[in-house]
């Protein structure tokens, strides 16, 4: 799980607030009675209501208008409330506490030391919580235009007004009832946090208020952030913010996380977060929401925009399929064009003409032959040498990296545009045949990049059954990006048909296995239900941030793994372990799959270095049919070490091992069959 911790003073946020007026803040009344003050917060006594006796008793203890008190705790069922005044503690009966009118002090004015306050961003999916989190903490994070981008908690720290805060970004939720694992993660925070910032999509007020009203009942200090404020105007929406604030009885701040507007206002409002007095009728709450929306929101008629027309087309039964095929094809063409362009015109020439001679020369000066071998290996071919500075760099930076960035560039665009949930609608019918619904297509698409985030993203699915089926599909339908890159770049020497054949076989196997698991698993597939966010033109700067986050991940996680793999191979080679293992596995590999014995060690270490195992086929000079068999086997026979552990965690050891064993058997059986057919035919 990744937890980001970062200290950035929020004062540095460049804020050009235009719409939120100070006037709305002044109208907000901050006087409450003592029972409504949250624990450990200070307040100034403003007035003591009630008769002479009440006033007198409190006065004797120094609790008079103007005094500062801290509420320490409250008993359940309207029991006494403990307060502290100048180091002394008093218990005040509930009816008496109701008569003490106070003004909560900003957290910074609080008497004594003030611990770090935990603030949680809660709201429906896709309302901009993560972008807001990034704007406040200054952390680069991945956001996308579909529900379920965030699946785990991300924590950051920031300072504002001399106080320290911890900010938590949670997965989106629609209500306080929980349906999925992501819901559960978010819900725990309602109790664990000190302050809730409820983020609302201002262009979808009615739907968002459902959660808001439920959260208000959690009796936690809360404030509401009306995000997407930049989008309200051209959607013909106007919202009377002071009126909404009055009804909800908590501060409401308008923000555009995209344009960085209103962030400072939001931070200023944090100390004013309070427990609302709004009464809520669970039975009638949609009526209540309707009334609120009618009171505060005005809609103007406007014409369909180009993006809305595009949305209609991409959801149309035929238009949708045309778009899906078009998008898939365009993605492949762009990824190949950018990837190959970078390799052929820039990286490979740079490596061959400048880097390799330089590094060979430098390493030549090192006296130890063993170290020389570790660094540059024993061959001048960068795919055969197993040197960390030659094979390691060549595979990681010249062969895989260009495909990695070009894939995430195109994928990031589709994510931000909002195309993925529409693709889910188009493929839903097809996916139903495998016991899945269309939403599983998003994790599957993610799996084309790297299996680990794809496996984690299955947490938004509602049932264990769906999770199992989706994970089986993720693991089998297509290799991860580094493997795909290597299959394409090595496979092209044998021709396009060879490459296509490999992918088609993998796809058929994946679908076959899913049909099988679907039949065996008890239960039925869930109904499909998802929100379709409006199409939005992706912002180049956000796309750049997201690409940067993924590139950093590549350099910090994938590149070291590739180097480690090359290093292991190098040492095994040096110690003659490869030779030994090769001798043992030689016959079985040759008999069952028709592959040369040198493939045995690649299989052995493929578990550790799966992403690069295909690349290691290069020195073996395989025939086309051997390359097909080798690639299919190496893609399927085991998940890489990272996905192996993620699977164990997500599904539990028993189910995960069952799937892994099943896929291994299939890999063995299918490669054997391809080999047998080849022998019979040729
Ligand atoms: N126009 C506009 N777009 C925004 C704003 N805030 C966020 N977005 C976009 O809305 C999409 C969703 O943003 P996220 O931050 O991923 O939303 P989230 O609430 O974290 O979503 P989940 O993690 O899925 O619950 C992204 O494409 C953002 O770029 C905003 O104020 N205005
Ligand atoms: Mg998010």
UniProtKB/TrEMBL annotation:
GO terms for molecular function: ferrous iron transmembrane transporter activity; GTP binding; transition metal ion binding. Keywords: GTP-binding, Iron, Membrane, Nucleotide-binding, Transmembrane, Transmembrane helix. Residues 116-276 form the FeoB-type G domain. Gene3D superfamilies: 2.30.30.90, P-loop containing nucleotide triphosphate hydrolases. The chain crosses the membrane at residues 318-338, 392-414, 434-456, 468-488, 494-517, 551-572, 627-647, 659-681. SUPFAM superfamilies: C-terminal domain of transcriptional repressors, P-loop containing nucleoside triphosphate hydrolases. The keyword Translocase does not apply. SMART domains: FeoA (SM00899). It comes from the Bacteria. One of its GO terms (cellular component) is plasma membrane. The keyword Iron applies. PROSITE patterns: G_FEOB. NCBIfam families: small_GTP (TIGR00231). This is Ferrous iron transport protein B.
